[in-house]
Amino acid sequence: MSSQDIPEENLPAEAEHAHGAVDVADEKNPFADPGLPPHESRIQDIDERAAKRSERTVALLFTVSMLATVGFIASYVSIPHDKSVFIFPFGHVSALNFALGLTLGAALFCIGAGAVHWARTLMSDAEVADERHPIEAAPEVRAKVHADFAEGAKESALGRRKLIRNTMFGALTLVPLSGVMLLRDLGPLPHDKLRHTLWSKGKLLVNMNTNEPLRPSDVAVGSLTFAKPEGLEETDEDFQTQIAKAALMIIRLQPEDIKDKRELEWSHEGVVAYSKICTHVGCPISLYEQQTHHVLCPCHQSTFDLSDGARVIFGPAGHALPQLRIGVNDQGYLEALGDFEEPVGPAFWERG
To answer: Apex CA 105: angle with CA 170 and CA 182, to 5°?
Structure first.
């Protein structure tokens, strides 16, 4: 649209001189100040139809942001975490991660783009020179700030451009729901899942390194062997979840070296089985001192005496390692005689 199509009364008056210009330098002002260039009106300033188009563009961006936020929530709820899709040129990627990144990025981008387009086309673009002043909260300064804020609010046309205002409020209201949806991963409550492991009566003790069932003869006196329940494979989808509760330490002691009566009853010919999960913060225990029968957690140095019911003798751990009662089946393999009688790992608030 040319200026010839605009009513003459809407055309801005030409400035006679650049604002604040000082044409001639003198002793007080050794450098001439060219001032600000003459203000050039935008098409939206002189044509309401162009302003309406910009308003609809900003509202469209805010609306797309709202739809993208809804898409983020729908993707989070409906897309399985293990589903993958082929995206050129990235290859196979997680469908959930791709959808979450795309929708959240679109929601935030559209809010930013809408705000920028609003500021560049509809808000006042007049440049204002203001002298620097000391950082003081003088009454006149506060009054000027309030006046400037009121003027800015008026120039933004927030009250008059209701379509922009309502869609902006809608976009800004929905975007935080993306973060709220992440709280969904804090639940549901574990209920009694932390109290039980895969161990049960008759489950064979399988060597973690050889993947073969253990016999008492496979465990030498003074040695440390790690075991898992029969049937648990590393290829299982929930392997990490299950092994974090069911991992065992198998140690063989001389029966006369076992001080705790229950430990001796729950062992087989000096072979004892304890949880490998430290009762402090859940680190895997792997350091064994053969002479003292102590095991040490490498994370925070909690030390347990395996010859005395795995009680804590040093460090921040709050209670002894749980022991698994074991025996031997008809084929001579070590087997569990039940599950742990107490939850493995650290204490938790609903443990009771």
So the answer is: 75
